[in-house]
Amino acid sequence: MIRVTLIILGLLLFSGCSSKNVKPYSKYSKTSKQVKKKAIPKYKPKKKNWITTALYHEYKKWYKTPYKYGGINTNGLDCSSLIQIVYRDAFSIKLPRTTKDQVKKGYLISKNSTQEGDLVFFKTGFDTRHAGIIIDSDKFMHTSQKNGVSISSLHNPYWKQRYWQSRRILP
Fold first, then answer.
1. Domain of residue 125, residue span
2. pLDDT in tens, 90-119
3. Contact 107, 25 (CB under 8 A)
């Protein structure tokens, strides 16, 4: 009888090693510093050609990357570095680093004749400029302080009012 009692006490003693409520393992496998994966919006270009395919591929790589003046990587970048990197990676074309120099490349085209791959420039202040790349008809890829790398419409009142010029680089 004493043996049975000792066995039962031993089992009870060793069966509950912790008095704490332990959360399931899956909850512990995530750290507070874990980076959430960016959900890329579904965007269907009206035209499907090699230019829109290449631009959309670049857009997916850079989507939501924050704006950072002078930035050149996934920690942050500005509009001219986005253009420089996208043109380099998508089309193997070297462009200058600044908007001031990019606006001198290619040739001037009308706003109504823009097509995929064309650059669009805006006057956003007395001495400040902004730029983007046409990704599909009136839509352009750029980086903004509010949304990071995103797609906006040339028909948006803000951009429509500040439109300056368009330039064609691609043949």
1. 44-101+114-171
2. 999 999 999 999 999 999 999 999 999 999
3. no
